[in-house]
């Protein structure tokens, strides 16, 4: 072991999810790729008193550097405590593609990992997920697996079509793998281009309800749950960006899901859009600026304020823990 997450002040997701399911909210799981994004995330969660799962994909981990990622998470915990906040902070691998990647993350301070075997046949998915769970649990690290396939693109994860999670498989899958949470496919989608304007996006809350009946009290995870906020799409275009018109998952549907068995909701694209829109605006308004602090901070602040609102209105996790200064 290079580092153990407890030595970094991090938490795994077990107690987070138990409290979330009991009290009817979802824990926000926000992806980050650099310092400013993790600043925006932790500041938003400290100020709202929300627990948080800091997520990196394999690609983001490679970009930041695997030696640096755990200490960014440790710094986020230190920031929260310095503000008088007791929010739990987890460091999670998003869409771990194989056992070796998950193992490496466990050994480098992650408190939670996802093994995404959804592209495998059912039995192979079970075998791979079980292998990860058995190893991770030896180190008190929690494990998320996926059953069903989400369409869309996120880093190295690419799928052309949805394959909805089959409720009659979930009980067998959870029992045989021993995982701690389950990501399901009920109509959410990865990336910015989830739905076209004029579409009427709906997630299959009926499938969610049936799954909840099959594995009552078990933590469910929704991936691909960004809303693709129009204000940031418009702002990007206003200041020279190019992005096709798109709409995401309606907030009201996600709030209904978070009141049920959904203990964790993943958001990545919204943060990217807010962050990039802020940078584009700052550089367009100040074309002579070359101090990175002056154009990265506006991006961070847009991201922070958007996430604060999302925590209050969608996740329902505001005030679950002590708010910071």
From TrEMBL:
MF terms in GO: fructose-bisphosphate aldolase activity; zinc ion binding
Q: How is the cofactor bound?
A: Binds 2 Zn(2+) ions per subunit. One is catalytic and the other provides a structural contribution.
Cite the EC number.
4.1.2.13
Instruction: Tell me which residues bind Zn(2+) 2.
Output: 116, 146
Q: Which Gene3D superfamilies match?
A: Aldolase class I
Active-site residues, as the UniProt record annotates them: 94 (proton donor)
Assigned protein family: Belongs to the class II fructose-bisphosphate aldolase family.
Name the record gives this protein: fructose-bisphosphate aldolase
């Amino acid at each position: 072991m290079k580092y153990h997450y407890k030595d970094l002040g991090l938490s795994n997701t077990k107690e987070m999810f138990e409290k979330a399911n009991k009290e009817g909210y979802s824990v926000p799981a926000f992806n980050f790729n650099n310092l400013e994004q993790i600043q925006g995330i932790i500041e938003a969660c400290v100020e709202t008193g929300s627990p948080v799962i800091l997520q990196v994909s394999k690609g983001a981990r490679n970009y930041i550097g695997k030696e640096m990622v755990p200490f960014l998470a440790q710094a986020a915990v230190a920031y929260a405590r310095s503000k008088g906040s007791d929010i739990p902070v987890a460091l999670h691998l998003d869409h771990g593609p194989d056992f070796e990647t998950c193992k490496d993350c466990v050994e480098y301070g992650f408190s939670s990992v996802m093994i995404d075997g959804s592209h495998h046949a059912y039995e192979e998915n079970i075998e791979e997920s079980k292998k990860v769970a058995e190893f991770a649990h030896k180190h008190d690290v929690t494990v998320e697996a996926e059953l069903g396939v989400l369409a869309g693109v996120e880093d190295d994860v690419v799928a052309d079509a949805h394959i909805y999670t089959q409720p009659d498989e979930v009980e067998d899958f959870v029992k045989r793998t021993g995982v701690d949470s389950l990501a399901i496919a009920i109509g959410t989608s990865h990336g910015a281009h989830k739905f076209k304007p004029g579409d009427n996006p709906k997630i299959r809350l009926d499938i969610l309800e049936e799954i909840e009946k099959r594995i009552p009290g078990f933590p469910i995870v929704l991936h691909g749950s960004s809303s693709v906020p129009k204000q940031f799409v418009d702002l990007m275009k206003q200041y020279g960006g190019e992005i096709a018109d798109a709409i995401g998952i309606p907030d009201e549907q996600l709030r209904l899901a978070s009141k049920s068995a959904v203990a964790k909701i993943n958001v990545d694209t919204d943060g990217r859009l807010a962050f990039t829109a802020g940078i584009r605006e700052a550089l367009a308004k100040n074309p002579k600026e070359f101090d990175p602090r002056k154009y990265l901070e506006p991006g961070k602040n847009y991201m922070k304020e958007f996430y604060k609102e999302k925590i209050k209105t969608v996740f329902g996790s505001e005030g679950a823990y002590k708010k910071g200064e």
